[in-house]
Give the backbone structure.
Amino acid sequence: MKANRLIYLPLGGAGEIGMNAYVYGYGPEDKERLIVVDLGVTFPDMDTTPGVDLIMPDISWLEARKDRIEAIFITHAHEDHIGAVAHFWGRFKCPVYARRFTATIGRLKFDEHGHPKDAITVVEPRPAVVKAGPFDVQFVPVSHSIPESSALVIDSAAGRIVHSGDFKLDLQPLVGEPWDPEAFAAIAAERPVKALMCDSTNVFSRHPGRSESTLRAPLRDLIKAQRGMVVATTFASNVARLKTLAEAAQDADRTICLLGRAMRRMVTAAEQSGVLSGFPRTVSPEEAQDVPRGNLMLIVTGSQGERRAASAQLSRGKYLGLEMKEGDTFLFSSKTIPGNERGVISIMNAFSEMGVNIVDDNDGLYHVSGHANRPDLETVHKVLNPAIVIPMHGEHRHLREHARIALEAGRMTEVTTNGMMLDLTGDAPEVVEYIETGRSYLDGSVMVGARDGVIRNRIRMALNGHVLATLILDEADEPLGDAWVEISGLSEKGRTGAPLAETLEAELNALLEKTGRKVMADDDKLDEAVRRVIRQVAMEEIGKKPEVTVVVSRLSEG
Amino acid sequence: MKANRLIYLPLGGAGEIGMNAYVYGYGPEDKERLIVVDLGVTFPDMDTTPGVDLIMPDISWLEARKDRIEAIFITHAHEDHIGAVAHFWGRFKCPVYARRFTATIGRLKFDEHGHPKDAITVVEPRPAVVKAGPFDVQFVPVSHSIPESSALVIDSAAGRIVHSGDFKLDLQPLVGEPWDPEAFAAIAAERPVKALMCDSTNVFSRHPGRSESTLRAPLRDLIKAQRGMVVATTFASNVARLKTLAEAAQDADRTICLLGRAMRRMVTAAEQSGVLSGFPRTVSPEEAQDVPRGNLMLIVTGSQGERRAASAQLSRGKYLGLEMKEGDTFLFSSKTIPGNERGVISIMNAFSEMGVNIVDDNDGLYHVSGHANRPDLETVHKVLNPAIVIPMHGEHRHLREHARIALEAGRMTEVTTNGMMLDLTGDAPEVVEYIETGRSYLDGSVMVGARDGVIRNRIRMALNGHVLATLILDEADEPLGDAWVEISGLSEKGRTGAPLAETLEAELNALLEKTGRKVMADDDKLDEAVRRVIRQVAMEEIGKKPEVTVVVSRLSEG
């Protein structure tokens, strides 16, 4: 019998920020009992995933081993950690563990998918222990930009692992638990930490992170100084920020209205799970219409410029009866995530055209990050004193930088990206296998593989346009009537000024006339010949090689 | 007879950063003689302009008045100022004026387009005067991130206008002329400045701008400290930066190789036009292969992550025989323009995977901007002391902020965006007309209007996928054989697991069977019915409503 081993395998989140999915296993090789930590989504963009609704990790590896999965643990309720659980749970039907607030959000999702809500078990924080096969797992409260974020202590016969989750060192997070250095020291004192899997998001930020509580005074002063309507946007899940904004509004004698489904849902979930109390009274959009602008504050979704969120809607005009006007103020209490700049800037300019004053976080007064900066990471390394640091939750450049810091402090490390399986049994981490991983897309209501070619075809149509040619042939493989061409996403006229479709049809008819019987009788050869002519003529006429679909209908077949 | 008037009309660049095109006119209403200042391009993105090659201003208004155009003046050789001149010149065939370096670049473009090179006249700086109809125009040297950038003094009977062009206040720009406050004071002393049209790019930057010369020491220190190959990227047109980088390489005993056509072209043009001398010797990529890595420095194109530029090529592997390796250093001596983050980050991560050290400008050590910051703008306002400040070269939010500053200093101003015609004859600027403006796209070799629907169709295909249905009907409007469906950019299988195309075909055949003669005989109605079924079935099967092309072939017509 083979010896037991402890393995770590990221399926998402290691080499990207988003779509977190980490697997731990313990047992004999290829018979390890597995737990999954987080199962999140990432968001599509027009450059690489046009039309896609959500991006999730490829979990084929897990599916093929589903009988070995003991449980799924969710560290917190951000979409990049919880977003795929309800989508995939039906394939595993294993227990899911989370703290109360996270479970509340998770159960809303399970309900929408028709899964039993009680599939998610609420776990109390450490010292409570969840037994999952060979693993003992504890939830350790950490501060982050959402309530009840947790690190996990994962014990097995091969040693203690700490999985940091997303965290920052906030001594006064306003909502939720502060960073507690003693609690972390106790974890290491109780049993030495073999390995720390650690958030790398802000490894390039050189200054210690700032507390959520530092925003209170600046936000209060800002909102008090405004005369028109004030509208503020932030991440819906940042419950502490919502509370700070709402309290600042209250101080300024403003009535509060939450715009956007996600925002109302988060506040309700936070109140229901007991992490939020004393949130000022809010009014509905209908009621808000009757409040004088100078006494009104909207807190709205869409800090990243999302097209359908409240911010973007307001930038296009009236939304739920509410409208921005000259002299109003729009506050981005948020940072633009790289890649979202175009959407955010377009909203800013639309507001500028309306005469709205825009306040963003260029001065660092109205937003703080939810992730640990470099000095904070170093603090956590010191407190937990792990032999090994494995960076996670970062693009490759973040992981590499984080590994460098750990190495310089004399710890072992390995830049471990999605699909790399580490054996953590021995003294040093060892890469033992490369698993084929990737992404799968939720597209409408179906899943599409990233390598299926479906999305590649969309991108090609968007870049090159599309030509469709239909030919009808009779029993003798002779054309019945003329070739018919439809173009889509291409200039209607060519450089000669003649309609492109007609030029293509004329060239195709000329081709058919001179094409021999052998080619006419062969679907593949005929398709190839038609395609070549279309691309050649299009190149001459409009300087582009379009995507081509050829439909040859043979009436003899009917 | 109507009185003469002085008009200003931006056709591009006012409400965006890019695609600059400003028109000035003097004369009786609708008979003004016109000059054009700059005619630039802007660059496409996948979100709004997939597959497009270049974006240019819609110049229909100018074309309709081409007999009234006296000349085109080009302030400097950046693509957003010069890029469309060669494309459009054939429609105007008017004189083009520029300083020597700008003319050198312009003539290369004219040559490529088959235009006569001598259509561009080289102009010496002020006090030299170009007479263009009712206008006397002088080129005033300003410092910017390209050699021989110029402001224009535009005199007419209605007063003196200064058109700032792109500029910064650099006392030691290394290449080209420094900011000369006395020369600017002299302009105002000679004749009061009625209006200043002014660059707004950096109006949100609160600190005074830094000189190009401040980069010398940090770049030299950085490059000296490296052991492996050093690769630096910056804008090809930033000749001063190229020189600083090359000299730093020389100091560190490194051989220099310029990678990327634009980079070699710029250095050659700068040498030919006399603005650059003493540039260190460079070697070809072939020669560079024989130089030890520790003694080699590449200066490459692609600071904005452009897919085909040298940076991106190197991030994908070998390029022209050269390859990045572990221990090499890649320096972004540049700032990422908002919207280009995704491309730049993807290059950074690819280099990280190779073990390459990445240095960017997060610390502000290795790049300075070419535009005047807020305090610098205020300085120029004071020195020229114009009655009116019209912000240009900015998004709406920049123009608005710039106008606010001018207003606070007691000057008149008007946020003037593309298509707004100002009458500057009287004491105060007056908006007299709104011209329909927009963008036109160079797509392959043809121009496509932004509102033609061509690009909209591409975006729709990319978001929704495409279904093509072909039907053949006989003389009696009865189907000949079955309907045929091809899908593109859509999941091959629906939620039932059956092939989507087959499900669609079956539903179409069912439709055709039950469809009455009247609809079968009517192309529009039949098209509509087919389309409806396809979208409905697709929605059920895959949760998406695709774009649909229906081809009905009626053999009776043949």
User: Anything to note?
Assistant: The mean pLDDT of chain A is 96.
